[in-house]
Specification:
Radius of gyration: 20 Å
Shape: globular
Distance between the termini: 64 Å
Largest sheet: 5 strands, parallel
Number of helices: 11
Number of strands: 12
Strand order of the largest sheet: 3-2-1-4-5
CATH superfamily of the largest domain: LpxI C-terminal catalytic domain
Helix content: 25-40%
Structural class: alpha/beta
Length: about 280
């Protein structure tokens, strides 16, 4: 080496995203890029948004069951850290139309059941054994997770009673890994989230309860922050407004708020009450 020569070592930061539905994957991608990460996205066909193509360094579209393709894509780009974000509806798994590859078969043949946590933990462990560590899905949105959302309107006494009633039930259902959202009216549960997802559960609850129901969204009792963290965003607010929901209560400190200013403004304009609720 010549005397006086300067040697520069540059280690690129790389992040993999396994993307399902909604704005969560897009927002993680945006935030990671702002932090100078190269971002490589495995987007699930029929679930993820095509807008990811304009945000990430490269996107590979994968079908449910193509675990080997995910591993090969990350290996090609030397990605060793990834996040799972965005809803993936389990209806595709239950339909029997998915053809799992060899890697997927190694996962499903060793799970005790097909609960969300069972599948996601098994999938995450399988990737980590192949040198892809799954990070907390909140890592790039940490400031939103503790945001206290306050709207101009406050809940009435009867609405507070519905929140308290529904919160306990939602926690029990979440603990059974059934869903994280319930819709309540007059201390009666009218809808429970299952495989259809939060927004569809809200719409169903609105149809059954009529105007003025209360939505409660919680984290699981032993929430694994790598995946399935409760999220509230503009789509959630839109579902509440369509269903004529009066109150949206969510577990304070354990809920990701996407685009908080937009969420708060839309709720205030429509008279929807947002309530951060603690145990």
């Amino acid at each position: 080496m010549e005397c006086g020569a300067t040697v520069t070592t540059h280690m690129n930061k790389k992040l993999g995203i396994i993307a399902g539905q909604g704005d969560f994957p897009r927002e993680v991608c945006r935030r990671a890029k702002k932090q100078d990460y190269e971002v490589y996205v495995c987007a699930v066909e029929g679930e993820a948004d095509a807008l990811l193509e304009t945000l990430a360094d490269e996107v590979a579209w994968v079908k449910l069951g193509q675990v080997g393709k995910v591993l090969a894509f990350f290996a090609k780009h030397e990605v060793h850290e990834a996040v799972l974000c965005g809803k993936i509806h389990k209806t595709g798994i239950l339909s029997g139309k998915i053809i799992p590859d060899w890697d997927a078969m190694q996962i499903v043949t060793h799970v005790r059941n097909f609960k969300d946590d069972s599948l996601l933990i098994a999938f995450s462990n399988y990737l980590e054994r192949r040198n892809v560590k799954i990070l907390d899905s909140t890592r790039f949105l940490a400031e939103e997770s503790d945001l206290k959302m306050i709207t101009k309107r406050r809940p009435s006494k009867s609405q507070i009673e519905d929140i308290q009633f529904g919160f306990d039930i939602a926690k029990q259902i979440a603990g059974l890994d059934i869903g994280q959202t319930v819709v309540v009216k007059n201390k009666s549960v009218v809808a429970v989230e299952s495989v259809e997802g939060t927004d569809q559960a809200i719409l169903r609850g609105g149809r059954l309860a009529g105007e003025g129901a209360v939505v409660i969204k919680v984290a699981k009792p032993n929430q694994d922050m790598r995946f399935d963290v409760p999220t509230v965003g503009p789509d959630t607010i839109a579902a509440c407004l369509e269903a004529k929901i009066a109150v949206l209560a969510f577990e304070a400190g354990k809920t990701i708020i996407l685009h908080p200013e937009q969420v708060q403004e839309a709720a205030n304009q429509a008279g929807l009450i947002l309530v951060p609720h603690s145990i």
